[in-house]
Amino acid sequence: MKRKGSPLENLALVSYIGIAMVVPILAGVVGGRWLDNFFGTRSVFLLILIVSGVIIGFRNVFAITTRNLPPRKRK
Amino acid sequence: MQPIAFGPRVIFELPFLDGIPVTETVVNTWLIMIVLVVLSILGTKSFEKVPKGRQNVTELVVDMLNKLTIQTMGEDKKAYAPYMNTLFLLLLFMNLLGLFGLRPPTADLNTTMGMAIMTFVLIHGSGIRKKGVGGYFKGFAEPFVFMIPLNIMGELATPISLSFRLFGNIVGGVIVIALSYGGLTALGEMVGLSALPIFQGAIPVVLHAYFDIFAGVLQSFIFAMLTMVFVALAME
After folding, report:
1. C-beta atoms of A12 and B151 within 8 A
2. Is A11 within a domain?
3. If interface means Cβ-Cβ distance under 8 Å, which residues of chain A face chain B?
4. Helix (H, G, I), strand (E, B) or coil at B14
5. The Cα angle at residue B107 between residues B106 and B110, in degrees rounded to 5
6. Is A24 close to B221, i.e. CB distance below 8 A?
7. What is the DSSP letter of B104?
């Protein structure tokens, strides 16, 4: 069963898009710095976690914005 | 001039385990709980077939919130309506507490994070209940198997963004309003109006209207709405 969603529902989701993209990236920065400090490396973990944070953030945005499309059209 | 502290004050300490500090947050939350429980008892007392007065108001509120849940989550998930209604009303009362000169409990990350963790557990609990453990965890391996860690991390971002958004909006309002009261009091003393609080009596009304009423109602609505959407999404 697919619902189109009310305007209010979509408004709440739109306000979520921005923060859903930023949070994983910031978490990657904080976590990467912490891991670098912990293991004494220079910025290996920082780089890895920032890149994965960006991917996760984009995946979040993708998942939110395509959730009302039928699965066939998502590709 | 004394410095303005923005953290919740400690009201009293529980006298065991070296004194557990009980902050404004907890005291005000209990206050709201008492108000909500009393309102529920008063509102649902002695129902009649033809509603009038008090019963009309209760039915209006409950019916409106039930319809919102059904519209957002679908007719088949009507059973979630009581939880969502409670969540919305609790957040609404918490955010509007600033109007009474008390500190909103949502201006404390502990409150919002606790509520976001409840939402998180509800999302994944409903998903597991609907799809079964195997089917639920298979959802993490979509579209590719190597997406598993990324999908799990993406799910962990949900409670963080929910709680930080609510906390940030409310605590920002608390700080701006406290600063404006402090500044306007000083301004009044400067022009010799210390006995007559004209500035701090009139100007913060605008700030209260925006930060407490507009942002408060909007944020509690968004929190409840996103909880509904995510729970419905996890069960599809």
Report:
1. no
2. no
3. 1, 3, 5-6, 8-9, 12-13, 15-16, 19-20, 23-24, 27, 52, 55-57, 59-60, 63, 67
4. strand
5. 70
6. no
7. P
Position A73 in a domain? no
Compute the distance between CA of residue B28 and CA of residue B30 in angstroms, rounded to an integer: 5
Cβ-in-10-Å burial (0-12, 13-18, 19+) of B205 comes to exposed
For B161, which of A1, A5, A20 is closest by C-beta distance? Answer: A20
Q: Which token pair is B149?
A: 């860690």
Report pLDDT digits (tens) over A13-67.
888 888 888 888 888 899 899 999 888 888 888 998 899 889 888 888 887 787 7
Number of folded domains that form chain A: 1
**Residue A54 within a domain:** yes
pLDDT tens per residue across span B144-199? 777 787 788 888 888 888 898 899 999 999 889 888 888 888 888 888 777 777 77
**Terminal-to-terminal C-alpha distance of chain A:** 20
- Domain, as residue range, for A47: 24-66
pLDDT confidence band for B205 (50 / 70 / 90) = confident
